[in-house]
Design a protein that fits this description.
With 228 residues, the chain is of the alpha+beta class. The chain is built from 7 helices and 8 strands. The protein has a single domain, classed as Peptide Methionine Sulfoxide Reductase, Chain A, CATH 3.30.1060.
């Protein structure tokens, strides 16, 4: 058994003792400023909000998403490896690349799901039982439009005081996204009884269906189905 798999088992066991459950969903308004839905090429969006298992699991249920891929962003390709990223010194954040159809779902709606149910954007360098900069809240923009929408939405939500504390989500340029190891892909779907998933991540998917039902699709889009 390699070290990475051993760490996954340890995390699951610790979750039974230390996890207090998923961050609560918050009902938030849609972005006042955003790009309208329009036919066009498939777009990518890269977001970080704690352990990528739960973030991927949420966005696999977003209508219009063609793929949600767990990986690393914020650091160099040479250090984009789970055991290395886990030391918190690489600059990487556990991230998810969301490939979506802009005619079906807008970038603003993706951010609404991100802030509402995928994680708690007021927690600095942590989510649930996980601590470290690799678990930070971040939006990695790939163009000026994504940057504009993200910054405007954060300002809108802070001004409306929809969260008890200020949003700490970073908005950074995307320098590269590097897919995580295969055993991380579809992890929530493949491991629904893992204690970490049960306590911290499945409630996020359930909250998504309850809080944003018009954006939720029951059938998850799996990475494995794409033949990666």
């Amino acid at each position: 058994m390699n070290l990475a798999r051993l760490m996954l088992m340890v995390c699951g066991a610790l979750a039974q003792i230390t996890a207090c459950g998923a961050e609560p969903a918050v009902v938030i308004p849609a972005p006042a400023i955003g790009s309208p839905k329009a036919a066009g090429p498939i777009h990518p969006a890269v977001l970080a909000g704690g352990c990528f298992w739960g973030v991927q699991g949420v966005f696999q249920h977003l209508r219009g998403v063609r793929q949600a891929l767990s990986g690393y962003a914020g650091g160099d390709k040479a250090t984009a490896e789970y055991e290395t990223v886990s030391n918190g010194a690489t600059g990487h954040a556990e991230s998810v690349q969301i490939t979506y159809d802009p005619a079906v779902v807008s970038y603003g709606e993706i951010l609404q799901v991100f802030f509402s149910v995928a994680h708690d954007p007021t927690q600095l360098n942590r989510q649930g039982p996980d601590r470290g900069t690799q678990y930070r809240s971040a939006i990695f923009y790939s163009n000026d439009d994504q940057k504009r929408v993200a910054q405007a939405y954060i300002a809108q939500l802070d001004k409306a005081h929809v969260f008890a504390s200020p949003i700490v989500t970073r908005v950074d340029p995307l320098k590269g996204f590097f897919a995580a190891e295969d055993y991380h892909q579809d992890y929530l779907i493949n491991n629904p009884h893992n204690p970490y998933i049960v306590f911290n991540d499945l409630p996020k998917v359930q909250n998504f269906a309850r809080v944003l039902p018009t954006l939720y699709q029951p059938k998850a889009v799996m990475v494995a189905a794409k033949g990666r």
